[in-house]
Amino acid sequence: MNSMAIDRRRFLQGSAAMSLGPCALSWPVRAGDGGFAPAAFASAVRRGSGFALLLLSEDGSLLREIPLEARGHDTTVHHEAGIGVMFARRPGDFAVAFELARASPPQVFRTPADRHFYGHGVFSQEGRLLYATENDFENARGLIGVYDVKGGFSRVGEFPSGGVGPHDLHLLPDGRTLVVANGGIETHPDAGRAKLNVPEMRPSLAFIDREDGRLLARHELGWDFHKLSIRHLDVDHSGKVWFGGQWEGSLDEAPDLLGTASLDQPLKLLEMQAALPARLKGYIGSVSLDRSGRLLAASAPRAGRVLYFDTATEKLVSQSHIVDGCGVAPRGVSGFAISSGGGELRAAAPGSDDVGLAVHHNTAFDNHMISFAS
């Protein structure tokens, strides 16, 4: 496992990009009823010298592999429409749409030339539109790009994200309100992965009416925490938002890295154990609620840990240890699946031993994994 652990910031270096055109795709064996075995999880990966999107079963075995032209980041699905979309990692300009239950060729669509994706997106409730975080890099503006699903994912509009450097976004249970994690970090493709404004960054959590692009609320933590880039989100059934951050200051000064908010409630950080933020190396890679909504899992891949919080008490209840474990997705009623840069997939839950599900050789899972279960 250690031999395959990766530095995610150097993931692209030395790897050959793959062109995505008409290609032969592997697909699951047929299930007993004549249909295809259902996928449980999806994740972008480095696969040998190239990149791919993997669809996996509940036990972690490979069901389908979709080649990618470059590194992917996160995936979103719409269960009723039977489609999913994987987004390129910043500053990539491509996304790949695929069907969940058929091996039809995937469809690639792109941002305009003066935009790029930030790696995350979400479907509207009825599945007619897709919203994606994007960068208007010449003007240092965060945007939400709007794509027409039935129109071949043509780009039909955009509106401001409410800040700079939007990353993750989710749709609240009302079906109308988007919540956007504006990381606050200015970037430009000409500067690669460089962060151009750390001394002045202003991260925020923005709530936006998806139908008219109107900013409903914008929450910030204040100047003492202005280097805590808000990155990743999950939303519970009540509309409460749980977020994880990335600290851009000295690790000795790292604040608590997880928090909550809602449309009408300000940002609040979850109290961690003393010195834990520094030991986590200032970075939360993914956050996920279990299916019951009673547990929050947050990965800290640089520290090789996954933290579990009781959402009722907002207290840390347990930890798992996995080298370069970052992708976290719900599995079962109150458990999680965790993927790693070493190609490992594990099942974990507070109060029980982690269980190894599968190891995919010559594979490095990327930051995020999603569950297909609704």
Notable characteristics:
48% strand, four-stranded antiparallel sheet, Methylamine Dehydrogenase, Chain H, 1 helix, mainly beta, 1% helix, 374 residues
In brief:
1% of the residues lie in helices and 48% in strands.
Task: Characterize the structure shown.
The structure is a single chain. This protein is mostly beta strands and 374 residues long. It has one domain (2-371): YVTN repeat-like/Quinoprotein amine dehydrogenase (Methylamine Dehydrogenase, Chain H). 1% of the residues lie in helices and 48% in strands. It contains one helix and 28 strands. Strands 3-2-1-28 form a four-stranded antiparallel beta sheet, with no helix packed on it. The chain has a four-stranded antiparallel beta sheet with strand order 4-5-6-7, with no helix packed on it. A hairpin with a 2-residue loop joins strand 1 (41-47) and strand 2. It is globular and about 50 Å long. The two termini are 31 Å apart.
Question: How are the secondary structure elements laid out?
Answer:
Layout: E1 41-47, E2 50-56, E3 62-68, E4 72-78, E5 83-88, E6 94-99, E7 107-110, E8 116-123, E9 129-136, E10 141-148, E11 154-160, E12 166-171, E13 177-182, E14 204-209, E15 215-219, E16 228-235, E17 241-247, E18 258-262, E19 265-269, H1 276-279, E20 286-289, E21 295-300, E22 305-310, E23 315-321, E24 325-331, E25 335-340, E26 344-348, E27 355-359, E28 363-371
Antiparallel strand pairs: 1-2, 1-28, 2-3, 4-5, 5-6, 6-7, 8-9, 9-10, 10-11, 12-13, 13-14, 14-15, 16-17, 17-18, 18-19, 20-21, 21-22, 22-23, 24-25, 25-26, 26-27
